[in-house]
From TrEMBL:
GO terms for molecular function: AMP kinase activity; ATP binding. AMP binds at residues 32, 37, 58-60, 86-89, 93, 134, 145. ATP binds at residues 11-16, 128, 173. Pathway: Purine metabolism; AMP biosynthesis via salvage pathway; AMP from ADP: step 1/1. It comes from the Bacteria. Residues 31-60 are annotated as: NMP. This is Adenylate kinase. GO terms for cellular component: cytoplasm. Belongs to the adenylate kinase family. One of its GO terms (biological process) is AMP salvage. It is found in: Cytoplasm. Its EC number is 2.7.4.3.
Length: 198
């Protein structure tokens, strides 16, 4: 049973690391951003509802986001652990996740904070914009997403730090090196991956 959160500014490499860690720990990587993007691409009712928020680099309302996560965590594959990527992002979402976990009689093992300085994350996001053409990766929207992160999500680091569950990982460098750092920090906390050959 491994229950992890990944937190960090846009462009810190959360998505990439989430997929690698999910493989290593054999748990589903649950990314609210991916769920929303999937729905936007497929023009579902949810997609139509969230598109304008995403395009503007704003957060999707908590009520909608919380409902999506509550549903997703009820699925069978999340029963034996999960890795949440990009959720929670607001104090309201922390409260909802707490409620869901208490209801299940479980708790988070570790919150992995991936750090990267602003110049680096902006450079990475602009590169991703050129490669993937994400609607929210333009210079202006990137700036807004970073502001929203600083305002609404960075304060969550204190909330989880007070609980003693945060490990801070330098997100600079090669993807593999960052994964190794995370795996080492998790192992120190007694969380051993089922495989380290990624
Ligand atoms: P991401 O791929 O995690 O950077 O998320 C892309 C976009 O999806 C964000 O800029 C938000 O518009 C939306 N989003 C993803 N996760 C959340 C969340 N936990 N709360 C609110 N909005 C979210």
């Amino acid at each position: 049973m491994t229950r992890l959160l990944l937190i960090g500014p846009p462009g810190a490499g959360k998505g990439t690391q989430a997929e690698r860690l999910a493989l290593a720990f054999n748990v589903p990587a649950i990314s609210t951003g991916d769920i929303f993007r999937y729905n936007v691409t497929n023009n579902t009712p949810l997609g139509l509802e969230v598109k304008s928020f995403m395009d503007a680099g704003a957060y999707v309302p908590d009520s909608l986001t919380n409902a999506i996560v509550a549903d997703r965590l009820k699925e069978a594959d999340a029963a034996s652990g999960f890795l949440l990527d990009g959720y929670p992002r607001t104090t309201d979402q922390v409260a909802e996740l707490d409620r869901l976990l208490v209801a299940e009689g479980t708790q988070l093992d570790v919150v992995v904070l991936i750090t990267a300085d602003t110049d680096e994350v902006v450079a990475r996001l602009l590169k991703r914009a050129a490669e993937q053409g994400r609607a929210d990766d333009t210079a202006e929207v990137i700036r807004h997403r970073l502001d929203v992160y600083a305002e609404q999500t960075a304060p969550l680091i204190d909330v989880y730090s007070t609980r003693g569950v945060v490990v801070t990982i330098d997100g600079l460098g090669a993807v593999e090196a960052v994964t190794d750092r995370i795996l080492a920090a998790l192992a120190e906390r007694g969380l051993r991956a089922s495989t380290t050959t990624l």
